Structure formats: C-alpha cells, structure tokens
Amino acid sequence: MLIDSYQRQFHYLRLSITDVCNFKCDYCLPDGYDCSNPREFLTIDEIKRLVTAFAELGVSKVRITGGEPGLRKDLAEIIRVVKNVDGVDTVALTTNGYNLETQIEKWVDAGLDSLNVSIDSLKSDTFRLITGSNKHQSILKGIDKAISLGVKNVKVNAVLLKQFNENELTDFLQWIKFKPLSLRLIELMETGDNKTYFAKQHVNGEQLKNKIENDGWLPIVKSKVAGPALEYCHPDFQGKIGFILPYSKDFCASCNRLRVSSVGNLHKCLFAEEGLNFRHLLQSSSQLSQLKVWLQTQLDDKKETHFLQDNKTGATKHLAMLGG
User: In 3D, which of 21, 41, 32, 14 has the Cα closest to residue 264?
Assistant: First the structure.
C-alpha cells in the first residue's frame, strides 16, 4: 500500500505521456508549446512496468494525461496495456478533445472507462478566444459520441475565468439537464508563469458552489479513487456538477493521487518543488521489487499541503507540464 506520514492512501495515478499540447489556452500556454527542447517520452514497455509497480502497491485507477495525450499515435495501445495490468480497474483519459470525434471508438475498444474533456465555454467564439482552437463543434460531437458508445463516466472540465465564462453557469446547467455527464468547474490555479493573469481572472468557486447548494443540488459521497471534485446531483437533471476548489480549507486532506511525468519523474504534488526521476528503474521487469521499495520510500516526506494558499507554486510553470 502507498501511504504517507499523514495516513493518506494513494489509489490513483495520473500518468502524463507527453507534455506537448496543440492548444494555446490563455491560462496555461498562451504562447503555445515550446518545442525547443527535445523530449524522449516514456515508451510503452516503461509505462507497463511503472503501472505494474503502482498496481501492486494498491493503485487501481490510472488517468492518462498530457500535455495532450491524443497527440501520441500509440495512445490506443497505451490504454490497452494499462487496462490489462492486474489490479487496474479504471483507465481514464483527460484530453482537449481535438481528435475525440475521430478517435474515441479506438480508445473505447482499447478499454477506456472514463473520459474528461476540457471545454471552458459553450460559446464557440469564447472557446476560440480561450484556446486558440476552432475545434469546438467537433469536440461537442465527440462527447456525444462517447456517451453513445457507453463510456461510463464522461466529464467536462471548465476552468473558471472572470472575463470569459464566469456568467455561463446557467448555460452549462441547461446543457447538462438532459445529458448524462458530469460538469467540473475548476478554480483557476496560480502557476509560475501566470501570476498576472491569475490576479485578473481568478473566480472564487465557493460562491458558485453555495449557489448550487441553495438551488437544491445534493452532495455525492466520493469513492476512494475519486478525484478532488465536490460533486452534486439534482433529481431534475441527468447530469451532475462538481467543483474543484484548490484554495478551499483542507483541500489536500483527501489527497489520493500521485503523478508521473512523461519522462519518468515522480511528482508527489502538482506543485512540488521538483520531480524525482526513476526512469532508470523502468528498464527491466527484474527491477520491479526495487521500484516498489523506491516508490514507498518517497512518500515519507510528502508535504501536508500544496501551499497554494501561500502563493507558492513550486516548480510548476504551467499545467501542461503534468496534465493538471
């Protein structure tokens, strides 16, 4: 079992398979991806070995992230390999959805259980302003296709931005009234390179959460592999709504996830000072026992909180580095 000194158990791995992204989201990569430094991303064999180690230590859910994971041509094979590791019950994917409409069938056939798609606005023009992409309608069609294919958990992530979508709550609620998906409203987080933007665009998500509660939405009990969202349901809605509020009190108390970067660094927190490279322990299946011992040891000094409330952002320059 992976457990830290605060008795938090880790059943959930967020695995980045690339840090490349093809969108230019205002809050993350406004100038686009910097491709000046070559990357040698984890291979499928390395991914299988690391997921096997985590699964043998109690991890049952693996979320594949980027950058944009859909940019890897072997994504379907990665999903298949991860799904076939003993102990892994759930394979999830977080994507910007740029090729969702054309690729979702392959991903589902490979074993995908859960899908998160980033859509920060339901208005095409606003979406384009935020992301620099004109894929809005295709992404919405891809979401409908995923639902029709029977993906069990389809979620839509929207980062709250004061000048763009703060007033879209009514539109989002109307959208999920007849769609069996979960909308996640995410409070903008400060990173190393967005301090000025953060000051202009940050929206206090607690206010929206309070509004939802006053409108009759009921809280849903979280499972041991659930993410950080506080999720709600309503008898008049097919969809659900959740809030990810990283600045709320005790946000880190229920932490249950670890992160591995696309080049094999363990990040004990999204906002840790640095990643710890363990790629040298992924070169042979004979290293499995050594890798498991190393992973267990690293949790001894995991911090109690992310320190965002103190304006400390660690080594996280932008969220594409680790897929959020």
Answer: 41
pLDDT tens-digit readout, 77-133 = 999 999 999 999 999 999 999 999 999 999 999 999 999 999 999 999 999 999 999
Q: What is the pTM of this model?
A: 0.92
Helix then strand count (H, E) for the chain reads 9, 12
Q: Strand 90-95 and strand 114-118: pairing?
A: parallel
Most distant pair of Cα atoms in the chain: their distance: 56
289: buried, middle or exposed (CB in 10 Å: 19+, 13-18, 0-12)? exposed
Cα distances (Å, whole numbers) of residue 163 to 47, 113, 133, 169, 196: 40, 34, 18, 13, 14
| Distance from C-alpha of 94 to C-alpha of 272, rounded to nearest angstrom | 21
Helix residue ranges per DSSP H, the chain: 44-56, 75-83, 100-110, 124-131, 136-148, 169-176, 195-201, 205-214, 288-298
Q: Which two tokens stand for residue 124?
A: 């095409």
**What pLDDT sits at residue 103?**
98
Of residues 275 and 45, more confidence is placed in 45
> What proportion of the chain, given as a percentage, has pLDDT over 70?
92
The first and second tokens of residue 162, run together, are 């004061």
Cα(27)–Cα(114) distance, integer angstroms: 25
How many angstroms separate the CA atoms of 89 and 201, rounded? 37
Rounded to whole angstroms, the Cα distance separating 213 from 23 reads 34
In this predicted model, what pLDDT tens digit does every residue of 225-254 receive, in sequence order? 888 889 999 999 999 999 998 877 677 777
Task: Write the single-letter amino acid at 42.
Answer: L
Mean pLDDT within 196-207: 91
Pick from 90, 9, 4, 48: nearest CA to 291 = 48
> What is the Cα gyration radius of the chain?
19
